[in-house]
Write a structure and sequence with these properties.
About 40% of the residues lie in helices and about 25% in strands. It is an alpha+beta fold.
């Protein structure tokens, strides 16, 4: 499914969503980033959402979601070395665990690693309702340690963060320890022109991770992978249908414009033919009038040679030479 992964990585906007548990209550936090040129711009944020419906009201249609889980049942460790494999990381946190029953994720540090372990069925029980509701989850991450991705963006004096029921100790912009805490997150952080609540930091870090390091993979949930493939082919079908409809529309538009062009030319030619036919009819009418008049006059138009000059000469010879012609009347 390399094409599916490449297509997801080409997305320019991601929303980080975290499922946080305090006591027996669950809540969602949302923070979305959009890539504009060479910058990431915050375009949506929310916290303390108590239902999936409230979560969906914050999301755009077909919005890719990077999901983070920080709930009961997870084990966290700060190690002073980096395990070479997931099995080694699991053994460092839960030595007697069966690898087939657990998901393991680790966030590398310069000298060490942050490891989270959780049972697979626990993750699937939290993710499945979101998938059934139509939320497009493309990656799932576990634990609070992914907030490490944005620690360099926070003030250098930050010494602790409250993520769900875990209080993270921070020193020199790195997580150095954690402990359970019932305190509520209350800090506010200024990032550029935006203000981010402490409860939204994990969601922000996940959307930031998706935009800047899309090759980092979440836990391998088969249901999420299948949904990614289904959604990819759904969008592929959608764009194919839209493309075909656009092609047929342009073809019909081209045919219509071509028809209008030839129809206009035909009407122009028809008008010109009508004018020529009118002229021909006038010519024929004049020719008929000429023939009728010629037939009416008959031989009157052909009277033979005129003898007017001969009679004039005879008259002139018999008249006195002193007479002068002052007026001539011909009948």
């Amino acid at each position: 499914h390399q094409k599916v992964q490449q297509w997801i990585q080409q997305q320019t906007a991601f929303v980080g969503v975290t499922v946080l548990q305090r006591g027996e209550a669950y809540s969602y936090a949302v923070c979305g980033l959009k890539k504009e040129k060479e910058q990431a711009k915050l375009w949506t944020q929310a916290e303390a959402l108590r239902s999936i419906d409230a979560l969906q009201a914050q999301l755009a249609a077909d919005q890719p979601i990077v999901l983070g889980l920080q709930v009961k049942g997870m084990l966290h460790r700060v190690l002073d070395y980096q395990p070479a494999t997931a099995a080694e990381a699991l053994a460092a946190v839960f030595p007697s665990a069966e690898a087939a029953d657990f998901y393991v994720q680790q966030v590398p540090l310069e000298q060490g690693a942050l490891v989270t372990v959780v049972r697979r069925d626990r993750v699937e029980a939290l993710v499945q309702p979101l998938l059934q509701a139509g939320v497009w989850v493309v990656q799932v991450f576990i634990g609070p340690f992914w907030v490490q991705e944005i620690l360099p963006l926070l003030p250098h004096w930050t010494d602790h963060l409250q993520i769900g029921d875990q209080k993270l100790s921070v020193q020199n912009q790195q997580i150095t320890g954690l402990a359970k805490s019932s305190a509520k997150p209350s800090q506010q952080f200024q990032l550029g022109e935006d203000t981010i609540a402490e409860a939204q930091l994990l969601a922000l870090s996940l959307s930031f991770l998706a935009l800047t390091q899309p090759e980092v993979a979440g836990v391998p949930l088969d249901t999420v992978a299948a949904r990614r493939v289904d959604f990819y082919y759904k969008k592929l079908f959608y764009y194919t249908v839209v493309g075909l409809l656009g092609f047929f529309f342009l073809a019909l538009l081209g045919n219509y414009l071509l028809f209008e062009k030839y129809n206009t030319e035909q009407q122009s030619l028809a008008l010109e033919v009508a004018q020529q036919q009118n002229l021909v009819a006038q010519r024929d009418e004049l020719a008929a009038q000429y023939r009728d008049k010629k037939a009416l006059l008959g031989d009157l138009l052909n009277l033979g040679a005129s003898k007017a000059s001969y009679y004039a000469d005879q008259l002139a010879a018999s008249l006195p030479s002193t007479l002068q012609l002052t007026r001539l009347s011909l009948f």
